[in-house]
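Figure 2 data, in text form.
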Amino acid sequence: MDAIKTGVFIAAVRREQNMTQAELAARLHVTDKAVSKWERGVSHS
């Protein structure tokens, strides 16, 4: 799967829900840095 497209999708859905990266991270039990990496397409996992 394309990491950039996935990141754009995650960011769009997060914004539609009026959530910050920190709020999404807390719900997923990950760090806000991980969410940032996903949204930028940097993370491979």
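Caption note: The radius of gyration is 10 Å.
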